[in-house]
């Protein structure tokens, strides 16, 4: 009998902390935008391009890193990637040239592209027989870090100005050192990747299902990244203070983190497709409820909309892995990376809509997109729920 693999909770804790910081940095640029616009009269289109540059480089490279790292683990990428991103972003407030800002944003994205595939693999390696729940915890920490970004960065920029970005390198250095000393060693990583011909065969076999899943993710990513980019500018145009705006964005994102955990649990019991379709379709009226009400009721609508939008975040990744079960890392790269990057690229169009038709119109388009994603999700394959499969296996 094969001995039970021990669970390394301390290592999981460090990797989850690193993921929280990494995703806090991933939501860095949208928090800078209102201050950049005020200081440089940046157009909405140019602001969207800046965020898209980071999103594209951090996303499109992930499938390549995922395939490469499956074949040969490179532990140094987690701490070097974290430090690299922290350095690049910490320099953004010190430059005034727009093209240089875009370059720094693009280079920063490479850091998170290197971190995510290897860190996810590390979590799987050290999680023993509780891989699913501990990977969900790891993802939840990232979502919480994303949510904390406006609460921490907006007061910093408002109090000390954009030059304060230089100080944000400090937590990156600290976490990079933790990863350097405590991340799993190379001898337990990599070596199990499928051949290129096996990958191509899997993609060909499941092409229709993967097309539906990646389309859903791309549309949802467009809505998500667009809201992160446009909402702070919209709140600024509505004469809402930067602090109040940051609180509203935090509420949406934190609720999304909780929704992601609940969504995974619900999808295990009732099926992936049902959860994905229903949550996305529900998000649109909830967002419109937020924009057409005031006070506490408006905040409740925003929280529910954030939870509904992001409740399918990890579920779509699992759905893709179930579609190509022998290529799980590639599935994660395609969904979390490539599809998300396509959505990030299209944010430029939303920014252009904002310039031509106003921020309110751009926001209205973004609110409508989850409904479109939910309709596309109807074309996904309806697989048995995890609960049904466990019952059938008895």
Description:
- One of its GO terms (molecular function) is transmembrane transporter activity.
- The chain has helices spanning 9-26, 28-40, 44-60, 62-71, 76-90, 98-126, 131-160, 169-182, 196-205, 207-237, 242-270, 272-291, 295-310, 313-323, 328-357, 359-377, 386-393.
- It has 394 residues and is an all-alpha fold.
- It has two domains: 7-191, MFS general substrate transporter like domains (Growth Hormone, Chain: A); 194-393, MFS general substrate transporter like domains (Growth Hormone, Chain: A), CATH 1.20.1250.20.
- Helix 5 runs antiparallel to helix 8, helix 7 runs antiparallel to helix 11 and helix 10 (207-237) packs antiparallel against helix 11.
- The radius of gyration is 20 Å and the shape is globular.
CATH topology of the largest domain: Growth Hormone, Chain: A
Counting helices, strands and paired strands, the structural category is mainly alpha
User: SSE string, helix = H, strand = E?
Assistant: HHHHHHHHHHHHHHHHH
> Total number of β-strand segments?
0
* Helix content bin: over 70%
The radius of gyration computed from the alpha-carbon positions, rounded to a whole number of angstroms, is: 20 Å
Beta-strand percentage range:
under 5%
CATH class wording of the largest domain? Mainly Alpha
Biggest sheet statistics: none
- Counted by DSSP, the helix tally is 17
Keywords:
mainly alpha; 2 domains; Growth Hormone, Chain: A; 17 helices; 394 residues; single chain; globular
Short description:
Helices cover 81% and strands 0% of the residues. It is mainly alpha-helical and 394 residues long. It is globular.
